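Let's practice the habit of predicting before peeking. Look at the sequence and jot down your guess about where helices and strands might fall. Then scroll down.
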Amino acid sequence: MDANNGGMNRKSEKVRRANRVIQNRTMIVMAVLGVVVFIALFFKLFSLQILRHDELEAKALDQQTRSTEVTATRGTIYDRNGNIMAISATAETVFLSPLEINRALNDKDKPVSWTKDSVAQKLSEILEINKEGILKKMERTNSQYEVLKLRVEEDVANQIRSYINDEGVQGVYMVTDAKRYYPYSTLASQIIGFVGTDNYGLYGLEARYNSILDGQTGLVVSSKDNAGNDMPYGYEQYYKAENGSDIVLTLDATVQYYVEKALAEMVNSTQAANGATGIVMDVETGAILAMASNPSYDLNDPSAVYDGIVAEMVKNGKLDLAGAQLRQWRNKAINDTYEPGSTFKALTLAAALEEGVIDENTTFDCSGAIRVLDATIRCSNRGGHGHQTLEQTTGNSCNPAFITYGLRLGKEKFYQYMKDFGLIDGCGIDLDGEATGIFAPLESASELDLACYAFGQNFNTTPVALIAAQAATVNGGYLHTPYVVERVVDSSGNVISSHDTTPVRQVISEDTSAIVRRCLEYVVASGTGRNGQVSGYRIGGKTGTADKGQTGETVLSFMCFAPADDPKYIMLLTLDTPSGTGRGGGGTVAPYASRIMAEILPYLGVEPSYTAEELLGADTSVYHVVGLSVEEAQAKLKAKGFSVKVIGDGDTVTAQTPEGGTVIPGKSRVILYAGAEKPDTLCTVPSLVGMSPSEANLAVSNAGLLLRFTGTTDSGAGSVRVINQSEAAGTKVKAGTVISAQLSDSGVTD
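Done guessing? Here is the structure:
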């Protein structure tokens, strides 16, 4: 029994041991599995809560909320007089929710009368977009936001709104947006620039000042249910949009218009292959009143080729569309460099005077050429100008004289002045893309390089850098940074910043500047710039004709400023590669500069100062003399400088031409009718182009019209001819109408 019990006990002990082993192994396995599971869960939770936190949070927010952007209003761009150059107005963006469209079409409890096809057809008609494209977007049934068209006009949005309401269409929405408008269309297009489809600035000031104009987009966050519908009593948070700031420019829309109009006419009349540029600047501050680059484009449709000549090049395959667009967007006044030619001589003159290598009493004998190293450089007058004073060397634009002035300066001094005038490093204008001057390195520049540089050849600069330097030669010697943004104003009207007009440096003395002004006034009064004269104003200036390498092509230019004794405004015009003209800047460009200055100087408040002779020819209003005796009327009109012709044998004036109050040129003829009937037939404008002043005056008088001359005031010269007229030949106008004819001296050469 005991033996049996002992055996059983041993057996039980073995079982217990086995059970303990199994139990221990199970515990170990469970522990290991627990640890493994814990580690797996740990890493899973780490991934979900840490690594994918932002992603999952965004998904949760997307499932539970709907976010709608509140577009900030982009700042307005004004000219110096408060005229709006660029403005954002309310528009609406049309978009689809394919998810809602699909749900509405599949809801058997609420059948609809419309289909995807009918909605797509109607929207394509209203929005003028492709129907298939709309249908394709409708197939994205998980999407709630598919844009159909950005920033549609109010009348288009109203058509869609009416259609949605009338047909009960679901899933078509419109959100308020902003659209950029440019009220002046093509005016100052390269300066203003434009925005892209996202209202982000792409060119010009729109790009340069995008962060200032753009503002801060707002947001409305609202809760939605699991079906994507807005919850009427759910969460909503509004983050206010911050509107962009406004910028006020130095540009004057009126001055800009006159410059662009003249450039377009100049390019068309000369068929200039590479267009033209024009800049008007305040000499005392560097403020740019106008900056134009031809060809231009329409800011409201910047992708369309606007210029006829460029469009023809695209049509003929000479230029691709992208190239044509870049050509019209490019601001050549700052982006492109050119050889300035003789307009640069003002700087050589100023530097040589300042260094004392020449003075007011300097004279020069021109034989028609000068030899430098192994090269012979000729003057525009191949026979030579002979003995000349300092003024005459400037007025004659004598190359040998200015080469001599430059060589006397020396290479180091010359380069230092080019740097001080801002030509080598650029002028620093507040626009993108300013090119820098192209000069040979000082170390390797030869005497021949210096000789060519002295009269404006064989180096390149930008028009804007050159006009800033030219202004410094006549304003007392002070170099100013040209600028187009006067100030930045926030949406509350507070001035955030304004331009500092402190000069960069004084390059030459007041005394040197005064001598330069006198020499440049002589250029317009008696030299190559005679076609830049403006009646009633003292004008200083300099003509320029530069060869473009060995191609035979030229760049013609004219710089002028007024008043010559106390400059307020300076202008530089360039004409790139004109066709069929060999008359240089003085014969081709100066007449257009004269017209612009005649228009902008009175507008800008620069008062004319007429000589006694000019005063007799100045515009004057005609007295109303109807009802007076013929004798009284004649005496009254003649006292004002008019000549009088009487038609009829009556004693009392019964009619007159022009009528009382009409402003006509002084010395004009007034016709009085004394008993005779005044004819009401229209007069035909004669062709005046090519006529001398006396011939034009006779032709206009015989036609029963009046004539006003503009352009060169030296009308007695035998080479002065009419180059254009205000009314086209053959036009029918009222008797007594004033016809303007511009005079130009064809004998002027550079």
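How did you do? The longest strand covers residues 84-96.
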